[in-house]
């Protein structure tokens, strides 16, 4: 809805060594809407190609995860705009199902790719507002598919 640039403060904590791999994050918009989003994610990483020796990182791994976000009233209003007139309080938004493939090229260098599906599944007002196109007054799909790649260096 808003074309202005903004900045976020993000705090995230997770337990990656558990089979369940829970992650909790909090994101605060500090410029545009001063809204907050809380997110809980659970996932699991599967080894596709194991490391050469015991204790080595996997050469190739696949992680599947499911996340659910909760946005406060300011964030909901900023993202849904006039289409979200019936959505004027905090709600569950941004349900995400994601698959990530990571290739550990060498120690400290990895290449990753992901595909994610986002939708507002648990709040019908948010779902309807997200699918409403203000420009044409038409309704479209409320979901999004997002892909990305990453190159990470650790030292």
Question: Helices, strands, pairings?
Answer:
Elements: E1 8-14, E2 23-29, E3 36-49, E4 60-71, H1 73-80, E5 91-106, E6 109-119, H2 124-130, E7 132-133, E8 138-139, E9 144-153
Antiparallel strand pairs: 1-2, 2-3, 3-4, 4-5, 5-6, 6-9, 7-8
Series of H and E elements: EEEEHEEHEEE
**Residue share in β-strands:** over 45%
Q: Based on helices, strands and strand pairing, what is the structural class?
A: mainly beta
| Overall pLDDT confidence | 83
Q: Give me the oligomer status.
A: single chain
The total of helices stands at 2
**Strand order within the widest sheet?**
1-2-3-4-5-6-9
User: Could you list the spans in which at least 5 consecutive residues all have pLDDT below 50?
Assistant: none
Q: What is the makeup of the main sheet? A: 7 strands, antiparallel
The percent range for helix content is under 10%
Number of strands: 9
Roughly how many Å is the radius of gyration?
18 Å
Please report the distance between the alpha carbons of the first and last residues. 39 Å
Shape: elongated
């Amino acid at each position: 809805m808003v074309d202005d640039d903004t900045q976020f403060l993000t705090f995230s904590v997770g337990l990656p060594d558990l089979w369940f791999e829970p992650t909790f994050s909090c994101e605060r918009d500090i410029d545009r809407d001063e809204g907050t989003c809380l997110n809980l994610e659970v996932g699991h990483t599967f080894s596709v190609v194991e490391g050469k020796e015991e204790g080595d990182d996997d050469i190739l791994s696949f992680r599947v995860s499911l996340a659910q976000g909760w946005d406060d009233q300011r964030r909901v209003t900023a993202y849904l705009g006039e289409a979200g007139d019936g959505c004027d309080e905090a709600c569950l938004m941004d349900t995400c199902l994601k698959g990530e493939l990571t290739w550990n090229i060498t120690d400290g260098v990895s290449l990753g790719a992901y595909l994610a599906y986002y939708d507002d599944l648990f709040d019908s007002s948010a779902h309807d507002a997200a699918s409403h196109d203000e420009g044409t007054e038409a309704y479209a799909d409320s979901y999004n598919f997002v892909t990305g790649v990453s190159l990470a260096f650790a030292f």
